[in-house]
Amino acid sequence: MVVFIVGINIAGYVAFKIWSTKAGVLLAGLLGGLVSSTATTVGYARRSAGSAGSTHLAAVVIMVASTTVFGRLLVEVGTVAPGNFLRMGPPIAAMLVACGLIAVAALRFSHKQTPQMPAPGNPAELKSALIFGALYAIIILGVAAAKEHFGARGLYAVAVLSGLTDMDAITLSTAQLVKGRQLDATTGWRVILVAAMSNLLFKAGVVAVLGGHGLFRWIGVLFGAAVVSGAGIIWLWPV
């Protein structure tokens, strides 16, 4: 799993090195989501804090990066639990479409500027790989223990906590449990979407702390719409 995630990160890093100098708003967000949507959020929040005119541009890039995450989750679920992809993939894809529409709506109001992208760290660095490995081990243990002792409610609590910092670990661990028939696919994709909404709220908090009020207002609207969409999918999607 560590090699798998490092491989995805390296692919994003290579794409960043090739296209970052020519990145427009859309491409900047896509690259940011491939490398790290959280790091992208931190980078743009800091830059927008000192430049009121770039708040909308930063909000669009952050929204596109956060949308790209759901494409990444689909790849992870399809790789780890291919036999359950037809049950787990569609609601995640629906969230991808919903966030994509929100990002497109925001993009229509953006100015034609070329954003300056924050440089990502080395994704193949041993320290980063070891940290992810430890985090993955903790989360997969937490998910299994929560299911054993507290049932579905415990799983959602773990999803909320783990989604604050990382989406890959909770997605991979949940997909592994579904693949091993320790968790049904319907609960699995719901756990992943709950973690994703927790991650959106965490990034909104990052913007509130590091960015200006203008950026936070934009992110509040965009992420608020995304969270409402996710809640609607969880609530209305047929079992």
* Strand and helix order: HHHHHHHHHH
Tally of separate domains:
1
Shape: globular
Number of strands: 0
User: Mean of residue pLDDT?
Assistant: 83
Alpha-beta classification: mainly alpha
What is the terminal-to-terminal distance?
29 Å
Beta-strand percentage?
Answer: under 5%
| Low-confidence regions | none
Rg from alpha-carbon coordinates: 17 Å
Q: How can the largest sheet be summarized?
A: none
Helix content: over 70%
Tally the helices: 10
Report on the architecture of this protein.
This protein is mostly helical. The chain has one domain. Helix content is 79%, strand content 0%. It has ten helices and no strands. It has helices spanning 2-19, 25-35, 37-49, 55-80, 85-107, 126-150, 152-163, 168-179, 185-210, 213-236. The longest helix has 26 residues, at 55-80. It starts with a helix and ends with a helix.
